[in-house]
Amino acid sequence: VAVEKQGFSHFMAKEIFEQPQAIRATTSGRLPRAGEDDLGRGEPSFPELAELDVPALAARAKVTMLACGTSWHAALAGKYLFEQLARVPVEVDLASEFRYRQPIVRPGDLAVAISQSGETADTRAALMEARRLGATGLAICNVVDSSIAREADRVLYTHAGPEISVASTKAFTTQLAMLTLLAVHLGRRTGALTLERAAGLLDGLRELPVALDAVLGQAAAIEIIARRWRSARDWLYLGRGLAFPVALEGALKLKEISYVHAEGYACGEIKHGPIALVDERVPVVVLALEGPGYHKTLASLEEVRARGGKIIALASAGDRRIGDLADDVILVPQVDPYLQPILASVPLQLLAYHLARLEGRDVDQPRNLAKSVTVE
Ligand code: AGP
C-alpha cells in the first residue's frame, strides 16, 4: 500500500508528527497492563529474551552494539541506558569499523544490531562477524522480515511504521524507547533496578506520548527560531550524558537535509578544540534539560556565551534561569532524565526540518543520500 503524506508537505514532517503514536506502538505491547499487580508493575515483557543469561552477561561478558548513522546514535544512548540502569557493560561500534579492528567478542556476549531498514550492508556484515565469533545476535529493526531481522538469533521490532523520508526521525526515537525498555528489563534481571524505580520508568514511558504532543505543539515557535538563524553556515550542538548522542543526532539531521555544516559535541569537549569555532555567527544548540549534569552544562553554555556564541537552549519547563542565558529557548515538559533523549530529539528534528525547508532543499530526498545503504 502506498504511504501518503496525509496533508503534510513532506514525509519528514508527517513522520515527526507521528512520534507520539509510534512510541505508543513500540512500547504498548511490552508495558505491564494498567492495574497489574504489584510485582508486575516494573517488568516490561520480553519473552524473546527468556533464555538469555543476564546475570552472566553482566558479570562475565558484554554487549556490543553495532549500527550506522542515526541508529549508531541510538546505540550510543543505549550504552548509557544499559550501563546505568542495568550495570551491563556495553561497547558501541560503528558497523563499518567493527570487522576491520579485530574486535574482541566471545561466546556469551550479546551483539545488538540496530537498524531501521534492516538492510544496511555494514550492519549486516558486522552482525554476521559478531555471531561468527560466538555472540548471540539480537536485532532491533523497524522493517519486519528485513535481512538483519532474519539473520539475527532474536529480533525486536520497533513498530514505528514505514519511514519514507531519508532523514530518520520516528525510527530513532522508537529505537531509544526500545533500548530504554530493554535496559529496564535487563536492570530487573541483574537486580540493578528496584521494582519501584523500574515501575516509575515504565509509567514515564506510558505517559511519554502526551509529553511528545506538547513538544510538537511548539512547531510554530521552532519555525520562528529557524527563520532567525537561517543564514548561519556553521552550527554546534552540545549535550552531556544522554544528551550527547541527541546532540550528535541533531547535528546529523541538519547536515543531511539542509547541507549546512553542523557538529555535535559532548559539552566537556568543547574546550579541547571546537570552542575556537565560536563567534557571533555560530548558533550553538545547548541541550540543558534538568537532571544530573545540568549545572555543568550551564557552565559550558557560559563558556560559549563569553566568546560571543549565540545560544539556542533546550530546557525543561519551569527553568527560570535559562531565559537570561540563552538567545532563544525551547522548553520541553519535565520527564525522567532517562526519557529525556526521546523528547529532546523532536525539537531538533523540527529545527532541521524548518531550516531545510526555508532553504528550499529537497527535504525527503536529500542529495547524495539513500534511505538504506545496501553497499559496504
Ligand atoms: C538517518 O537520518 C540517515 N539517513 C542514516 O544515517 C541512517 O540512519 C543509516 O544509514 C542507518 O540506517 P539503518 O538504521 O536503516 O541501518
From TrEMBL:
Primary residence: cytoplasm
The active site consists of K371
* Enzyme class of the recorded protein, top EC level: transferase
Q: Under which EC number(s) is this enzyme classified? A: 2.6.1.16
UniProt-recorded Gene Ontology molecular function terms: carbohydrate derivative binding; glutamine-fructose-6-phosphate transaminase (isomerizing) activity
Q: Name one GO cellular component term.
A: cytosol
What keywords are annotated for this sequence in UniProt? Aminotransferase, Cytoplasm, Glutamine amidotransferase, Repeat, Transferase
Q: What is the catalytic activity of this protein?
A: D-fructose 6-phosphate + L-glutamine = D-glucosamine 6-phosphate + L-glutamate
Is Transferase a UniProt keyword of this protein? yes
SIS domain residues:
53-192, 225-366
Q: Name one GO biological process term.
A: UDP-N-acetylglucosamine metabolic process
Compartments, as annotated in UniProt: Cytoplasm
Origin superkingdom: Bacteria
Assembly with partners or alone: Homodimer.
Task of the protein: Catalyzes the first step in hexosamine metabolism, converting fructose-6P into glucosamine-6P using glutamine as a nitrogen source.
Report what the protein is called. Answer: Glutamine--fructose-6-phosphate aminotransferase [isomerizing]
- Say which species the protein is native to: Plesiocystis pacifica SIR-1
**What stretch of the complete protein does the chain hold?**
255 to 630 of 630
